[in-house]
Design brief:
By secondary structure, this protein is mainly α. 80% of the residues lie in helices and 0% in strands. The protein is built from six helices and no strands. Helix 2 packs antiparallel against helix 3 and helix 4 packs antiparallel against helix 5. The longest helix has 32 residues. It is globular and about 50 Å long.
């Protein structure tokens, strides 16, 4: 029988493992970014590019398509690769793809197909991150701590999912979209 004190000590043991703390932090950042991106991509498409409902629907579909296309084989591939490298590469690809959006906007090259492609790349990299993330726990922790680690990860993800729509809404209000239909290169001709 495990006492309450023993259980609390067991749960805090998970946080003493530096590898798990890094994984937990990266999981939180990654999940937060994904949740905010799922809100921001359609808003960007509608406010900046005047996307129609079909185009917004395509952005949503492509943001989930990676799971359908590579969800099953990704598990086999990740088992053959270094999981830490998969985590790092999938995060790097995710960051570069989403960083391309403001760059394309500044260069007056942002389009709905660009947002669709970004959603797809984010989806595929998310599949690899999730698979590697789930399969790396046994390498970081002893078997008896995996349940506690999974509980922490799930609690964090659920919390982020609950607060991210509000946070994304606040971010949208804090960074208003341009009120005119002018491109960034012709911003001088936009009305004030």
């Amino acid at each position: 029988m495990v006492t309450t004190e023993g259980k609390a000590e067991s749960e805090s043991e998970v946080l003493r493992v530096p590898g798990f703390r890094r994984l937990w932090g990266s999981n939180g950042l990654r999940f937060s970014a994904a949740e905010i991106a799922s809100f921001a991509l359609p808003i960007t498409a509608v406010t900046l590019l005047h996307a129609n409902p079909f185009e917004v629907g395509l952005i949503f579909v492509f943001s989930r398509l990676g799971y359908l296309l590579v969800g099953l084989p990704a598990g086999v591939w990740v088992d053959r690769w270094n999981r830490k490298s998969v985590l790092l590469w999938s995060d790097a690809i995710y960051v570069v793809s989403f960083a391309s959006i403001p760059l394309a906007y500044v260069l007056d090259a942002l389009t709905v197909p660009h947002l669709i492609a970004t959603a797809f790349v984010g989806s595929v990299s998310g599949v690899f991150f999730d698979v590697a993330h789930n399969s790396i726990l046994p390498q970081l922790l002893p078997k008896r701590q995996i349940a506690d680690a999974n509980a922490r990860l799930q609690t964090s993800s659920t919390t982020i999912m609950a607060i991210s729509p509000g946070a994304a809404g606040l971010a949208t209000r804090a960074v208003p979209a341009p009120s005119c239909t002018c491109s960034p290169s012709s911003a001088t001709s936009c009305p004030s």
